[in-house]
Each structure stands twice: as C-alpha cells, then as structure tokens.
C-alpha cells in the first residue's frame, strides 16, 4: 500500500476508537427498536456525536439525527448513513420478548461504522484538509414493517412516507448531499470481505382486505360470503401470473394472510392480506402490481366478496455507480485482499434504492456476521472487524473523493445522470399510493328482484 499519511492517521484513529465503537454497536443491539420508534438509539448516537464536538440535529424524521463537523469546507457534500431500526424476527434468541424486534439485519453495525468514519476523520483533522464536507446521518425506518403504526403516524401528521429515506428525501434532508454512502452487513465468511456493485429489487407494498358476509358456518354457510375463500383464490390467481413474469424483471410476489377469520364457527367475513410486489425496474414492478390487483379482484368476484387494495410505494430498485464502487474497492483491497465480490443481484430491497435514483450512492456489503439476515441464525461474529474495516474503507473513499480540489468526487457527480429528479420521484410516490375498491357483485340485488 503506498504511503498515505492522512489515511494512515485516520485508520489509526479508528483503531483507537475500537472500544467506543464496539460498545455503541453492542448498546444498540441490546435495545432493538423498530422503525420510527428508535428513540433510545437516536439518543445514544446523538450523545456520542455531541460529546465528540459535532453539531447535532436530533429527531429529523420522528427519530434519527444529522451530525455535521463544526468546520464546513467548500466543495461537494458527502453523507455517511447508518440505519437505526431493527427487524421483527421473534424466533431469534435475542429478540425482544414483547415486540419481537431484533437487529437481525445488522443495522446497529452500520451506525457504529458511521460513527467510526466520523471519529477517524475528525481525530486526524481531515475535515480541515478536504475540499468538501462530510455529514453523518442516522436514518430511521429502513424496514418496511408495522403498517398500522405508520398509518397512525401519517394520520397524526408526523410522517408523510413510511420509509425513512423516502421521508428524509421528502423533507429536503438530502437536497444538499452530492454523494451518499453506507455499508450493510452480510454473511461473507470469516475475516474482512466485501461485496460491491450490488443491485437490489424495488417493491410496491399492498394491504388487502376482503369483505364478505358472516353466517353460521355449520347451520347456514349458504347465507354467508366467505372472504377467506376469496383470499385463497386471490393467492392462487397470483400464482397463475408467475409464468408471465419476465426473468429480467426479477419479480417476487409473496403475500401473507394477516387475518383469516374471527371464529371457526362463523363464515369469515373480514380477511386481510399483505404483500410486496418486488421487481428490478419500475415498469416491471408496475406491470406485476397490475396483475396482482387483477388476481385479487378476481378472487373476490368469484365468491361475491368486496375487495380493497391499498398500494403503497415501497422502495425503488438499488442502482450502482461503478466509479464509486471502484474507489471503494481500491480502499477495501488493502484490508480484504482478494475477498471482494464484484457485482451481485439481490432480490431483496433497500430504501437506499430511492436515494440511488437521485444522487450517486455507494452501498457495499461487508462481513463480520454469520447467518442470513432477517433470520434466527443471524449473529455478529466479530463486532470489531464488522465495524473497523468498513469504517476505514469508507473513510479512505471519502478522502479520495474530496482531496485535491475534490477532483474525483466532482468527476463522479458530473458524470452521474439521475434516473429521477426529486419532483419526478415525489410524483412517483404520490401516484403509486392508491386505493382500489371493488364492491361486491350486483347479483345479490338481482336475486332479490326476481324472487
Ligand atoms: Zn438491512
């Protein structure tokens, strides 16, 4: 590795903070909070940044925080992100017994990485030397869960959008960011390792309700309209669409029943489903979403039930910027040697996808954990390496982007053509948000007419 005094000083400073960073990760792990509820995590992170002399704005979107160094230098603005929220995985041995929340997606590691970058750059005096500035944002609600809770937050005027980055884009927190970056944990085996250039699916979320008519399930099922049968048919109808999904669109539709009935001796009259419709492109997602709606309505129609489909903009597909990935790779190589996978396609979704449609984004995956994310097997095998290596590689990338007149950073910013402007993006969110109601078929009234 060629001699680079500034990077060396930053890396040493990050190593010197190992205890603090590991403690931060462990503290967040010990108190998992779901999206828009990350009050304790926000306090922890904000407290640390304040103690280290950063200017901190707390609760930027219900929770979350934005930290800036006191010195701000002219030039591009890089934002380093860390997601605050846990996921629900009640089967996990460390899940909160009440909420089922656990950091089984490693977001607590991201926050410690972000703090590591901040502390390393600050201690080495990098903020005064770079031709641009660096912000640190602890962002809420990456996992798209707890719809009812978020609907209430929205009703009360506390949020407009369910996803944390959606909300922060809407609120203008990324208006002045030129490049955003973070590192997400993934099981990559022991030792420092990384996946770069990874793309991800976007998705449209759906809340579905079938309304039938209750009746005694034994004595008079003929008087009822079975909403559970409507839901079952809807699922079969969705399965029948699968052969029409194109391989290149990477469509995934995975509905679940969240309410199947009220009592076993009553014909189910109120049945609820949820689904994501995931895809690699916006038109692909929209095409699959229309087919899913059709399948749901056909299920309802078959048994004479009514249906309501509430579609919500989930996240956009994750896009990559090869030049940014290449720069990260250069900075990761000294730590992980050949253990870098270049290019991967994830069928899962990340709200960094939304931001990646607007500005250049870097979203590598880094190791130090084992087990699949969102499962009971997920665990941190080595908190120190899970945090220190990515913090150094991101800090090194920032130094390369912003030094020498921010030549490299400006080249990436100038060469980037956003897939959407902010106005187009907000338009997409608004038009994807829709409720389709289909009343029960009219044959009931006809029957009454002729009887
Ligand atoms: Zn995650």
TrEMBL record:
An MF annotation (GO) of this entry: para-aminobenzoyl-glutamate hydrolase activity
Species of origin: Desulfoluna butyratoxydans
Gene Ontology biological process terms from the UniProt entry: folic acid catabolic process
Coiled-coil annotated spans: none
Record carries keyword Hydrolase: yes
This protein's UniProt keywords: Hydrolase
Residue intervals of the Peptidase M20 dimerisation domain: 202-284
Protein name: Peptidase M20 domain-containing protein 2
């Amino acid at each position: 590795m060629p001699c680079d005094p500034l990077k060396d000083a930053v890396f040493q400073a990050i190593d010197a903070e190992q205890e603090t960073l590991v403690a931060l990760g462990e503290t967040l792990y010990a108190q998992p909070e779901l999206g828009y509820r990350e009050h304790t995590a926000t306090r922890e992170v904000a407290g640390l940044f304040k103690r280290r002399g950063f200017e901190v704005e707390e609760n930027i979107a219900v929770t979350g925080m934005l930290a800036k160094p006191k010195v701000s230098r002219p030039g591009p603005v890089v934002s380093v992100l860390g997601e605050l929220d846990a996921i629900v995985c009640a089967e996990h041995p460390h899940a909160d017994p009440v909420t089922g929340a656990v950091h089984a997606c490693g977001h607590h590691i991201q926050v410690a990485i972000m703090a590591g970058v901040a502390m390393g750059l600050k201690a080495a005096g990098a903020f005064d030397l770079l031709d641009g500035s660096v912000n640190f944002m602890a962002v809420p609600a990456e996992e798209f869960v707890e719809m009812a809770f978020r609907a209430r937050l929205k009703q009360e005027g506390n949020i407009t959008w369910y996803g944390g980055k959606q909300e922060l884009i809407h609120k203008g927190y990324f208006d002045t960011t030129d490049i955003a970056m973070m590192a997400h944990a993934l099981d990559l085996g022991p030792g420092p390792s990384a996946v770069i250039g990874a793309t991800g699916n976007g998705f449209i979320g759906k809340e579905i309700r079938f309304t039938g008519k209750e009746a005694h399930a034994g004595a008079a099922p003929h008087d009822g309209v079975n909403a559970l049968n409507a839901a079952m048919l809807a699922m079969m109808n969705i399965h029948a669409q699968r052969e029409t999904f194109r391989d290149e669109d990477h469509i995934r539709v995975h509905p679940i029943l969240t309410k199947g009935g009220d009592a076993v001796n009553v014909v189910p009259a109120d049945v609820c489903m949820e689904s994501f419709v995931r895809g690699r492109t916006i038109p692909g997602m929209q095409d699959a979403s229309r087919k899913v709606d059709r399948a749901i309505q056909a299920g309802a129609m078959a048994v004479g039930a009514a249906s309501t489909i509430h579609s919500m903009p989930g996240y956009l597909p994750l896009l990559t910027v090869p030049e940014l990935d290449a720069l990260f790779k250069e900075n990761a190589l000294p730590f992980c040697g050949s253990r870098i996978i270049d290019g991967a396609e994830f069928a899962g979704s990340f709200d960094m996808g939304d931001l990646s449609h607007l500005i250049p984004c870097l979203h590598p995956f880094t190791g130090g954990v084992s087990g699949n994310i969102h499962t009971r097997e997920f665990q941190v095998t080595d908190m120190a390496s899970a945090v220190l290596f990515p913090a150094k590689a991101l800090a090194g990338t920032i130094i390369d982007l912003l030094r020498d007149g921010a030549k490299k950073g400006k080249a990436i910013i100038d060469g980037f053509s956003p897939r959407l402007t902010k106005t187009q993006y907000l338009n997409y969110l608004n038009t994807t948000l829709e409720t389709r109601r289909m009343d029960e078929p009219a044959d009931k009234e006809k029957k009454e007419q002729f009887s």
